[in-house]
User: What shape does this take?
Amino acid sequence: MIARSLDRSRAALVLTVPPNLAAHEQQVLAGVGRWLTEHSALAVWLVGNPLSSVDWITTWPVNMGAPPTALVNSPPNADAAPIRLAIEGQPKPGREAKLAQRLAVVNWAGLHIWNRSLDLGALYPAVFPDVRWPAEQVIVEVDGPEHRGAAMYESDRRRDATLLLHDYAVLRFTNEQIDHDLSHVLHTIRDLLQKRRNP
Assistant: This one.
């Protein structure tokens, strides 16, 4: 609606991060930004104060005093406030990167794609899985603490059901599982991929 009202095909929402947010407030703000990107055609930019308690989005320092065109053309300023976003096609720093490092050295991982939009058709919002195996139609999500809230939990279940109706199998692992039981995570992913490859 925002994009159409401006006669544009796409739109971006810029959210200014307030100072002195508590850790759980930082997680909520980042989770809201992610929810918006997954359930609308909006890109979301978090600008201003760094989200020190959020490790699953990437930061780029930019000069916020420059006009928007300079954000693309100017070299980053190390003293500027950071913007934290996922990079399409790459794992986010933190737990996703840890999982990606292990997947890179196993021979069964095959072709998989990180943080790239998945179009399920005109009646569904775009989905941005953490990692997806297109041939096997397997999706793995790495869930931080923001996924424990009631609204995010409900949204995740709704999205998982939609993906299931499109023949995708979804595995969800917590940050703690990645940190403390990564071998189990890898075995579970491997077993599902093998079942999908050899039905």
